[in-house]
Write a structure and sequence with these properties.
Shape: elongated
Number of domains: 2
Helix content: 25-40%
Oligomer: single chain
Number of helices: 7
CATH topology of the largest domain: Alpha-Beta Plaits
CATH class of the largest domain: Alpha Beta
Strand content: 15-25%
Largest sheet: 8 strands, mixed
Order of helices and strands: EEHHEEEEEHHEEEHEEHH
Distance between the termini: 89 Å
Low-confidence stretches: none
Mean pLDDT: 87
């Protein structure tokens, strides 16, 4: 039997699948990939523009039967997006007036979600789609262009299955990390089609307006979607993958110097003496030294791996390093590329300390 089912893995940091609730200003996302969104992904893989889909490809893709397994539903998250800057858009004001400007819109996303999508159709079409997704003409994304996939979209070869539920059950469910808890069940959303035994949609069927008639202009028709689920265990239908999708290795320990080491204290004193007791950045009296690399920290440093700094410059450099998540190699305050960032951070620290001083004085006066 020829392969009649294409399996797609849609996983990424962000996904957004617009539905009938998505408006221009508020763009919501469905809980799972929509048929319109998946067909759009396939068209991008084939290199078919919006205007070309209606004539030949869209009827073929619309006829595909689709099922989605919600392996990791993800967390809903909102962001804002500006539209129309530089396009002479008119923004509404009070009393019916308008003004030029950018329109502020809200966008909803699914964070860290992972879905398994099964598409069933003619074997020839399935083979063509699998080849296109493996070598796409255009960049593939998960609903919006800001949502790239984090895993290969095709991880399993097309197969021959009698129905969508069997196809979705064939792929073991995979934890994200080894210590993740096993969910009680895994939900699936399946296309419902009338049969002689069941000509009317069941009462629990959902209506999704996501079957594209045209992409330019956008027009969609409804379809019935039914929810089913898998369970794990001896009596369950779904198998558990042996390995997690990501390695849960702990982050490497941050390098630290042993400031009590006598050899370090000797090198520290030598550095301060070499710099005449002055901060190498602002020439104020130096009170400490800064590691520009931690590769030999703990007493094995040489004098060139340290720089004398005043307390303010040391705090500014350290805050920048922690903000950037720097590893063994750190900031050299004598490097010209760091001059402006250090100056800005010094000003931030001074302003913050001034505000804190004023707050403490006001608090003391209130107590008196």
């Amino acid at each position: 039997m020829d392969a009649n089912t294409l399996l797609l893995r849609l996983a990424g940091p962000l996904q957004a699948w617009g539905n009938q609730e998505s408006k221009f200003v508020v763009r919501r996302t469905a809980e799972a990939p929509t048929k319109s969104g998946v067909i759009g992904l396939l068209c991008a893989a084939l290199g078919i523009s919006r205007s070309e889909t209606a004539s030949e490809w869209l009827p073929k893709l619309r006829a595909l039967r689709m099922g989605v397994r919600l392996d990791i539903p993800g967390v809903r998250w909102w962001d804002y997006h500006t539209v129309g800057a530089g396009m002479n858009m008119r923004i509404a004001e009070s009393e019916g007036k308008t003004k030029p400007g950018a329109l502020l819109t809200r966008r909803e996303y699914l964070c860290d979600a992972s879905f398994l999508v099964a598409l069933q159709g003619e074997p020839k079409l399935i083979a063509d789609l699998a080849a296109a997704v493996k070598n796409p003409k255009w960049t593939l994304f998960l609903g919006r262009k800001a949502c790239p996939p984090s895993r290969p979209i095709i991880e399993d070869l097309p197969g021959a299955f009698p129905d969508l539920l069997t196809a979705l059950c064939s792929v073991p469910w995979q934890k994200r990390l080894n210590n993740d808890q096993l969910p009680e069940r895994i939900d699936c959303l399946l296309d419902w089609e009338p049969t002689p035994d069941q000509p009317i949609a069941p009462a629990d069927a959902l209506v999704w307006y996501d079957v594209p008639l045209t992409f330019d202009p956008p027009a969609h028709e409804p379809r019935f979607v039914i929810r089913r689920y898998f369970r794990f265990g001896e009596n369950g239908d779904l198998r558990l993958a042996e390995k997690a999708a990501q390695l849960s290795t702990p982050p490497p320990p941050r390098p630290r110097a042993d400031y009590r080491n006598s050899e370090y204290r000797h090198i520290r004193a030598a550095r301060l003496d070499a710099d005449k007791g002055l901060c190498v950045f602002c020439k104020s009296p130096a009170t400490t030294v800064q590691h520009i690399t931690y590769r030999h920290a703990g007493g094995n440093e040489n004098i060139e791996e340290l720089r004398s700094l005043c307390r303010l410059c040391h705090d500014a450099v350290t805050m920048i390093e922690y903000g950037l998540g720097m590893g063994l190699d750190r900031i050299n305050p004598e490097d010209p590329q760091w001059r402006e960032p250090i100056i800005r951070k010094r000003k931030e620290i001074i302003n913050f300390r001034s505000l804190e001083t004023r707050r403490r004085r006001l608090a003391a006066e209130e107590v008196e």
